[in-house]
Fold:
Amino acid sequence: MRRRGLILGGALLPLAARSQGAWPQRPIRIVIPYPPGGASDIIARMLAPHLTESLGQTVVVENRPGANGFIAGELVARAAPDGYTLLMGNAGPNGMGPALYGSRTPYDALRDFAPVMAVSVVPQIMAVHPQVPVRNVPEFLAYAKELNGRMSYGSAGVGSAGHMAMELLKSLTGVQLTHVPYRGSSPSTADLIAGVIPVNFDTVPVLLPHHRGGRVHGIAVSSKERVPEAPELAAIAETIPDFETVSWGGILAPAATPKPVIAQLNAALRTAMARPDVGGALAAQGIQPQSGPPEAFGAYVEAELRKWTEVVQRMGLRPE
Structure:
C-alpha cells in the first residue's frame, strides 16, 4: 500500500512525523502588500490551493495594503521566523521602495527577510485613457511636452514599479508629468478607466484585459522586447533604447526562518509552478513564471536593490 505523506527533496515525509513537531502544524498566511486585483494578489491566490495540497495545511492570502507596501513588509519582517507568515515580495516594497526611501524604510530589504523562491517576472503596460490623443510612445512624448508639466500619471504607490517606470521615462526623455500615487493597482486602474488620470503604468495581467476591451489604450510595454500576449504593443525600448524595467514577485519569509522550512516551502512552490494550471495559466496572462533555489532569488533581490538605488541617486529622486 502506498504510504501517504509529503514529498520533500525526493524523500517521503510520513504523516506521523508531522505529529511529532514537523512543520507545518497550522495554517500559513501569505501577506500581500496591495489590495486585491493586482499581479501579486493574482499569483498568490493561484498558488494558495496548490500549496495547501502540498503542505497539508491551509494557506490563506491576506491583503495588507498601505504605506507603499511597507505595512505588509514590516508585518512579515517582524513576524516569528517559523514559516507561518510569508510575504509576496515584489519590485516595489522589496526593491524600488527601499531604494527610494533608504533608511526611512521600516525594515532592511535584505537582512530582515529570508528568500524562498522567485515566482514571477511581469512586464508592465503603459496605457492611456482612450480620449488621450496618442497611440504610441513618440506621440505620447510629443503630447506630454506640449502640455509642459500639466499632465499627470497614476501608479500603485510611491516607489511602486509603475511609479519608478514613469520616473525612468521622465529621466530619459525630459518630459514633465505630475505623479498621483494610489493605494494599489485596482484604484489607479479604476481612475484610468474613468479618465481621472490620463496615463498609467501597470502590469500586463492588470491592464491587458482593459486594453483588449477598449477601456484603456495600451501604447507600449516596459520590457526590452514585445510580449507574446500583446505583440501589437511596441516595447518602449524601440523608441528609447536605454529603457527597460519589469515588476517581479517572489515568496519571502522572516529572517532566521529554519532552513528545512525554507526548503520545504521551496519544494512546494516548485511543484505548484510546474503545473499547467498555475505556471501555464500565469503565462497566458502575461506573467512569466519563475522557479529556482532560494539563493538565486536572494541574489536577484540584492541586484535589483542595487540597481534601483543607483537609479534613484542618478535621478535625484526623493520620497513624495
Summary: Residues 26-121+247-315 form a domain with the D-Maltodextrin-Binding Protein; domain 2 fold (CATH 3.40.190.150). The two ends are 63 Å apart (CA to CA).
